[in-house]
UniProtKB/TrEMBL annotation:
Basic and acidic residues bias (residue ranges): 420-450, 1095-1118
Protein name: Nonsense-mediated mRNA decay factor (Upf2)
GO cellular component terms given for this protein: cytoplasm; exon-exon junction complex
Compartments where located: Cytoplasm
């Protein structure tokens, strides 16, 4: 609905609020029949569309309706809840305005306002808590879908003054207005009477209620709908793309309209000056203030969720490094968080653009595996190899080194007295190893042990409970901070009994939780600095368990226990908690008994701590000797292939063969400079300076042009918001380097096709940027709509071999893959609003029918994709009526095909008119929409095949061309006889090859030779007929009917009316063949002329659309015509 109509409705509705009667004219005698009134109510509930709007308005004028007002109010509310498209919403606003003007606020509007306010109220939290998570999620989806339409309806009704404030709302059951008639679900300001300026506007109160208590920001999609639909009418901010297609000037500045449209531009300027927002500035500021407060809360939510995602990513990375996999529930939870965050960020970006706010900077939190984060993650191979000049070191990366070497110093975290118990035992143990024990010291030691036993015996029960709680936290130790904090907490509970209980708990590893072994080993190593009995007790237990398992070799069910035991020893070895003799004893025992079980144990031990033993100076010689012995024993002993592979993998992991470092791509200073200009420095403020820098480069050097072509062909490397700036730069460079622009456009289109062939999810972001780039190039006049539509159809049909068919599986486009829909949506969001008339408008209508059919061939659409499709149709064709299922979509598509075939002939006749009108191109070079774009090779090849197939028909029509009148419009050019003879020879050779290639084609089923009628008889028959009976020839048309009697073939002439279907089809076919012959002659005649022009490019007249190859054709306008048939003497 245009704003002029809104202002007109607003004036009428305000008159109804002021109490005027007969604002809406009704007929003198009103029909009160039950059938018509109930039918009106039923249609009002289910069939509010743009097509039924005149019927509704007529019935409101002629029907009584007064006795059914309560039913009309409820039916009207239900009908408004079902509206989806902008056309349906406009129709609903018209109908509600008519009812408001006829019945007035007291009988209709106030009750409807109460129902609308109730529909927009936030749900009761206590009710939601009683539902299951699945039911709660379903309820929220239904509410969002319902309120998505209601919010637009309420705002539109407020703009046309049907609704004013919540104070005007009255509950339908109340008989007296104003007494308990306010909406209980929405909080209304107290002390504001009806129709006073103190009350807030209806949509503002609704937004406050929706946004004020929305801590989880579930209503953000509703706000996005509001901002997109009413950014200009309420907020006074114009939406992107509202200025139309732009032309880039020499300095890179974009102008909206071309010179050929100056008169229209003046008219448009005047219309825009008078078309001001419908909301006054002070009220717009109040709306903007509510949005600003909510946006601040959303940004805090985004930052908070980003940190949570970052933390979850680190935990997943740690789990992957420890166990080699990430559990499915963890991964699913992480992916769910990332998707929710992406939706939150995209919706917040829309709101930020509307209110002019800045999005939070999330760049620091984008890389969850950054080496500076302190987590166990991944390192780029190049950085890793550069840091390890002599090959890989002890640790795989810096994070792993910090985990195993940077242990927390408990002395700085807890009081020293808490560590004395363990230190005493440690010093005593050292003295006993180093020298003889003095008798006095021995007595002191005995006393200390007695004291320890007494302290254990009288341990406080409260401390025991705290130790139990601490031990219960052991299975949850999955990150470094939690491990260190547990060690500090244990120091406050330090006693011999507590340490014994800790050692016992650490020996009981839960089944299947091998990921805990590094964490527990770190805890043991941290405590072992001051409590040596903890690592000593644990190592003694593991060593005894290893020896026990070796004695029970025939117990195959203990395989998991063996692996857990040896892995635990390996992790403690990397912390330096296992004596050297213990680990090498395990290696020696496994090597001596070279069975399959011991080979697995040996390989696990080598993979987990072999690199540490080999790179550690204290153990390196012994480990190198052991690896050499292992290799020799593997070569001389007969073992299976799986065991050999295990040994090879373990040895190569510990001591990989020497290999050269990965060579990093070396970029020239020029390439680095260009990449920095375009990928890093390019912004809205400085793109003019960037353009000047690029123009100053040495374009005469092929290397520089190749670098620029590579950079401009990769829009995925540019920030998504700066892709249109890349289009501006390319459009500005087109004036000076048109060939360069052609290559870039070709590269982008080829990259889009390559993405369809690969269909790898890793390239989705890049593919979105590429189709966005194509749309921006159309906006800045670098290509025309045939290229866009060819790309769209290729996206829809690639891999199907035709239109998609439900049930036919396409490996490039599975039924549950909706990415192609998003590609099409991106293109149409970028440039689809300009396909509103002319040939482009017809093509878009046809494509939308096909797109609608394609959408229903997919599986059930997610809500996000469904909203994307609805937004596309609302943007490009607001009045489009969406179908409900696949059958209706197929019927609509078949109807569009039939309509297109039916109007194909009329379109060909109308093309010369389009040249003068220039309806869809907004350019002064004729009808560029009908000119073939650059790179449309498929149509060209198809036309060449048609030329070869129609070579037999050419001889029939030669006489028609020979009879054409000779009209010389310019100086006649001389033709060299030798060139003409060469051309004839080449043409005859081409025809002969075509006939030769068709000899082996399958013959049709009807292989009867047609009888040849004598030409003289036809000529003699045609002569008198044309001279003597011209009226008969115009009313009938002669056909030859072939019959067969026995072995004889007979022909007879049958006269059919000229207006019959067969006669019309024959005339149409003859006309098409004649036009095809005309086109072939154009191509043949202009062949030499194009070659001469290609050799002399400086004499070629410049046109605006250089991205298409200059091919003379019947579709070209008069300003780019090269040669006409009438210019040559045939």
């Amino acid at each position: 609905m245009d704003r002029a109509r809104k202002r007109e409705l607003r004036a009428l509705n305000e008159r109804a609020w002021s109490g005027e009667k007969d604002v809406f004219p009704v007929s003198g005698s009103l029909d009160s029949s039950l059938k018509k009134n109930t039918a009106f109510i039923k249609r009002l509930r289910t069939a509010v569309t743009a097509a039924t709007l005149p019927t509704f308005l007529q019935e409101i004028r002629t029907l009584s309706l007064h006795k059914y007002l309560s039913e009309i109010i409820s039916a009207c509310y239900e009908g408004l809840c079902k509206l989806k498209s902008p056309g349906e919403i406009d129709a609903g606003v018209e109908i509600v305005s008519a009812l408001h003007q006829r019945f007035g606020p007291a009988e209709f509007t106030e009750y409807l306002a109460w129902l609308l306010g109730k529909g927009m109220a936030t749900p009761d939290k206590s009710f939601l808590k009683t539902l299951s998570p699945e039911a709660r999620e379903k309820e929220e989806k239904e509410r969002i879908t319902r309120q998505r339409a209601l919010l637009r309806v309420i705002t539109e009704l407020w703009l046309v003054a049907v609704l004013r404030t919540l104070d005007d709302a009255t509950k339908p059951d109340d008989t007296t207005k104003g007494a308990a008639g306010k909406v209980p679900e929405l909080k209304v300001r107290s002390g504001a009477g009806k129709a006073t300026g103190g009350a807030e506007p209806f949509p503002l109160e609704v937004l406050k209620d929706l946004l004020g208590y929305d801590r989880e920001h579930a209503n953000l999609p509703l706000l996005v709908v509001f901002v997109k639909a009413f950014s200009w009418d309420i907020l006074g901010v114009k939406a992107a793309g509202a200025d139309g297609r732009k032309t880039v000037e020499e300095d890179g500045m974009a102008s909206t309209l071309s010179a050929g449209r100056s008169q229209d531009a003046d008219g448009n300027t005047e219309a825009n000056a008078s078309d001001q927002p419908l909301t006054p500035p002070d009220l717009a500021d109040r709306f903007r203030s509510v949005l600003k407060r909510y946006f601040d809360d959303v940004t805090a939510h985004i930052v908070r969720d980003q940190k949570s995602i970052q933390s979850q990513a680190r935990r997943n990375a740690e789990a992957y490094v420890k166990s080699g996999e990430v559990f499915e529930d963890r991964q699913a939870s992480y992916e769910k968080l990332v998707k929710a965050q992406d939706r939150l960020v995209s919706n917040a970006q829309v709101v930020a653009d509307a209110i002019g706010a800045e999005m939070p900077d999330l760049k620091d939190a984008e890389d969850p595996l950054a080496t500076s984060s302190g987590s166990i993650g991944l390192v780029k191979t190049g950085d890793y190899l550069r840091s390890m000049a002599d090959g890989p070191g002890i640790w795989a990366d810096e994070d792993e080194r910090r985990f195993y070497e940077n242990l927390v110093d408990l002395k700085g975290k807890v009081p020293p007295i808490l560590l004395e118990d363990g230190k005493k035992k440690k010093s005593d143990g050292d003295d006993q190893v180093g020298r003889k024990v003095d008798p006095a010291e021995g007595s002191d030691s005995t006393k200390a042990e007695v004291n320890d036993d007494q302290s254990t015996a009288i341990a406080n029960k409260t401390i025991g409970a705290q130790v139990d709680a601490l031990l219960a936290r052991l299975p949850e130790l999955t990150n470094k901070d939690a491990i260190d904090q547990t060690a500090v907490d244990f120091c406050f509970l330090n006693s011999k009994a507590s340490r014994n209980r800790l050692v016992k708990a650490l020996t009981e590893v839960p089944k299947g939780r091998s990921d805990l072994l590094p964490s527990w080993s770190r805890l043991v190593a941290t405590l072992g600095r001051y409590m040596s009995d903890v690592p000593k007790g644990l190592v003694e237990y593991l060593d005894a368990e290893f020896r026990s398992l070796q004695r029970r070799k025939d117990k195959d069910f203990l395989g998991q226990v063996r692996l857990s035991n040896i892995r635990y020893l390996a992790e403690l070895t990397k912390f330096g908690a296992v004596p050297e003799h213990v680990v090498f004893h395990c290696l020696k025992v496994s090597l001596d008994d070279f069975s399959r079980m011991n080979i697995e144990i040996l390989c696990n031990l080598i993979e987990n701590c072999g690199r540490y033993l080999l790179k550690n100076p204290d153990t390196a010689p012994r480990m190198a000797s052991f690896l050499e012995t292992l290799q020799r024993k593997k070569s001389v002993q007969h073992i299976g292939q799986p065991e050999r592979m295990l040994i090879d993998n373990a040895v190569y992991y510990v001591d990989p063969p020497e290999r050269p470092a990965i060579e990093q791509e070396e970029r020239t200073p020029m390439e680095l400079f260009v990449r920095k200009l375009v990928y890093t420095d390019l912004t809205k403020r400085n793109y003019g300076k960037v353009l000047k820098q690029i123009r100053r480069l040495h374009w005469e050097e092929a290397d520089v042009v190749a670098i620029l072509e590579k950079v401009f062909s990769k829009p995925g490397k540019v920030k998504y918001g700066n892709i249109h700036l890349l289009g501006i730069l390319l459009s500005a460079l087109h004036r000076y380097h048109p060939d360069f622009v052609v290559k870039v456009v070709d590269n982008v289109i080829e990259s889009v096709s390559f993405g369809l062939e690969v269909n790898d999810f890793r390239f989705f972001q890049r593919r979105i940027a590429e189709v966005k780039y194509l749309g921006e190039l159309y906006n800045y006049r670098m290509l025309e709509h045939p290229v866009i539509f060819d790309t769209l159809y290729k996206i829809m049909t690639f891999g199907y071999g035709g239109p998609p068919v439900p049930g036919r599986f396409n490996a490039f486009d599975p039924p549950d893959d909706f990415f192609r829909i998003r590609l099409v949506a991106t293109v149409l969001e970028t440039c689809g609003m300009f396909f509103n008339r002319g040939a482009a408008g017809k093509k878009l209508d046809y494509f939308l029918s096909f797109f609608q059919y394609y959408v229903f061939t997919k599986a059930s659409l997610p809500m996000e994709i469904e909203f994307v499709v609805q937004d596309i149709f609302a943007l490009t064709r607001p009045q489009w009526k969406m179908v409900a299922g696949l059958e209706e979509a197929a019927k609509a598509f078949q109807l569009a095909i039939a309509q297109d075939q039916k109007t194909a002939g009329a379109d060909k006749q109308a093309e010369p008119d389009d040249v003068s009108s220039g309806d869809s191109s907004d350019d002064d070079n004729g009808d560029v929409d009908e000119v073939e774009p650059y790179g449309d090779g498929e149509d060209e090849s198809a036309s060449e095949e048609d030329e070869v197939e129609d070579d037999d028909d050419e001889s029939v029509h030669d006489s028609d061309f020979n009879d054409e009148a000779i009209v010389v419009t310019r100086q006649e050019e001389t033709v060299d006889p030798e060139d003409d003879a060469d051309f004839e020879r080449e043409y005859a050779k081409m025809m002969a090859e075509s006939l030769e290639s068709r000899k082996f084609e399958r013959k049709p089923l009807f292989d009867v030779p047609l009888p040849v009628r004598p030409k003289n008889r036809e000529a003699s028959a045609a002569g008198p007929q044309s001279e003597e009976a011209p009226p008969a020839s115009s009313s009938t048309m002669a056909f030859a009917l072939l019959t067969k009697k026995g072995n004889r073939q007979q022909t007879r002439t049958v006269e059919l009316p000229s207006d019959s279907t067969l006669a019309i089809a024959m005339k149409t076919q003859q006309q098409a063949e004649k036009e095809e012959q005309q086109r072939i002659k154009n191509l043949v005649l202009n062949y030499d002329l194009q070659q001469s022009e290609d050799q002399e490019p400086h004499e070629r007249p410049s046109t605006f659309y250089h991205n298409r190859v200059e091919r003379p054709s019947k579709d070209r306008g008069q300003r780019v015509r090269k040669l006409q048939l009438s210019d040559v003497d045939w």
